[in-house]
Amino acid sequence: MKSATAPKSPKISFKQHMLQAREEAIVQTVNRLLAEKGFDAMTVDEVAQGVGIAKASLYKHFPSKEDLAAAAMVRVLHRTQAHLQTLPAADAPLDKLKATVRWAMEVQLAGEMPSLPSQNSSLRAKLMENAAYLEALVQVSDQLGGWIEAAQKAGQINPQLPAIAVLYTLFARACDPVPGFLQASGQYSDTEIVDWVLGICFEGLNSR
Amino acid sequence: MKSATAPKSPKISFKQHMLQAREEAIVQTVNRLLAEKGFDAMTVDEVAQGVGIAKASLYKHFPSKEDLAAAAMVRVLHRTQAHLQTLPAADAPLDKLKATVRWAMEVQLAGEMPSLPSQNSSLRAKLMENAAYLEALVQVSDQLGGWIEAAQKAGQINPQLPAIAVLYTLFARACDPVPGFLQASGQYSDTEIVDWVLGICFEGLNSR
DNA sequence: GTCTATACTAGGATAGAC
DNA sequence: GTCTATCCTAGTATAGAC
Prior knowledge:
- 2 copies of one chain form a homodimer.
- Chain A has 208 residues and is mostly helical.
- In chain A, 73% of the residues lie in helices and 0% in strands.
- The longest helix of chain A has 32 residues.
- The first copy, chain A, contains 10 helices and no strands.
- Chain A has a domain of 140 residues: Tetracycline Repressor, domain 2.
- Chain A binds a DNA duplex (18 and 18 nucleotides) through helix 3.
């Protein structure tokens, strides 16, 4: 699948490397700001200031604010894919799902989980046009979806639930406001919070 | 607690009634728009157009966009209080909590649950200055909190969880994106969706 | 591809007549 | 308390020089 480009000259490679590094710095800043304040409250001026370049330079790399957000979402989806691949293949599907939700909540509590409004329509439209975003999203969804169905067949996850409902529930844990509120109360450690919310997610609120 | 006003003259009463009706119409429109598009995407122009009055007239009733949102939140909290009082006192605390979450999800699926960004700081600041909002919020929280602790003592809700974590989890169900996504897929009835999400909330994703 | 400076618009809020 | 007309800030995006 790799394109048959000519052997890379050092100069071009160096330039490309610089370019990539700059863009990575931009996306990292966007990611942080999206996690801190969300899409609407984040301004392009803040991003430029955070990266340390002029706003017009930003627009040479990304044609719109929506594309900045999309890039941050692609980045976190790629981080997710990388996490998924660290999970031992021998683990039970349920354990992999739990580990993934745990990881996502830790990312969120670390202030590194970008959050987009689930309502903003112009943003959603742009995301749905973004091939890189869609591909990463589908790939993560397929991976998780496979584990969900396996866990349901194994009787570990309630087989009466549609798999899509389970998938949405897991995705929703990644942007759940509850961990953040508990963290903001200042009374509990991140470890406690993650354990509780993870328990609530899989075991429910009820006593067993 | 009623103020000792002079016996109301018909004229004043009528005027006041008109005023209240107009404000109720405003808040109802705000409520709908907040449910549809959220605080940031809602514009004051839309509200004015929805009510059928000029924007400047809106500002005679409510001094800012944030105050509009606060009024909608107070309205939904009052609706919640009214719902809480319909619950039979004889019911077990756990059943009352379940019925309340079910009710909130039905309101949400009906497009009547206003949603505010949990991040917007200027909005949160204004809300925290709003006495009516705070009072209603505290009253609802106290009511639910009491039931939560009772259910934990009765061994119906996991007593190892801090009550505040349970409370936040229940509040979060009222603005959970999962029911809306399932509804948007068009494959399931509202009844199914509510049953599933309610089950996930209390029983968890796992099989029992 | 970086900068400074600026265009353009949306949208919250207000002035002032009635 | 309602209206029309307007103000003004914030914020996305771009022009044009280097």
